[in-house]
Amino acid sequence: MIINFGNTVVNTLSEQLLRISCDVLFVFEHTDEEIDFATPAYWDEVIQSFFTSYSMYEIYKEARWRNNCNRVTDYKQVWGLLDLAKGEFSGRVECGEKVVYLGLSKSSIQQLNTSKAGAYLLIPTEHEAEIEEIWNYFLTLCSEQKQWNILNGFCGLVKYYPYVAALFYKCAEEAVLAIVSNSTDAIKEKFEKASHSAIITPHFRRLL
Question: What is this structure's pTM?
C-alpha cells in the first residue's frame, strides 16, 4: 500500500485548539491489503522542535460496551486488553453505555516520530512531578462526559493546567492532528513555516 498526502492546512478553532489536516490517498498494490492509518511524519518533527523541554506521555484507550465488561476486563486494564507493556498509570471511566479503559505510559518527545500511540500529554519538565495529579484530573473530566470525547477532556485539562499541552491524531479521509495548548499562535506559525520533501513520509500509529 502506498499513501499520498495532500497539502497541509492549519486552522485555529479556538484559543486553545489548533487543527492540522491534509487529504489522504491510499493506493493498494494487492487486493487483500488492509488500511494502515498514518499521518505525515514531518508533523511530528514540528512538534518535537517546539516542545523541546517537555516530557511526553502516551495515552492508550480501549472502549467496550458496559455489558461486555467484568472483573476480568477490570483486572487486565488497558494494558492487557491491548497487549501492551504496563505503563505508569491506568484508569476506568464510564461514558454513557460504554466503559473506557485508559492508560498513560511515559515516553520522551524524541520518540514521537516512532511512537504508535494516537494521543499524548506533554508536560514541562519542571512540572513533571505533578503528572499523577494531572492524570487523575483528566480521568475526572472524562468521567463527567455522557459520550467519549478526548478533545473535550484535553480542553478542560489545559484550561485548569495552562502549562500542559495535548496531541490527538486521527486518520480517515483526512489525516488530522488536533493540538490543545495555550501556545496555538506560535505553533501555527511553526507549521506554516515548516518545509518538507515532495514525497511525504508516513508515520503509522494506533488510533483511539
Answer: 0.92
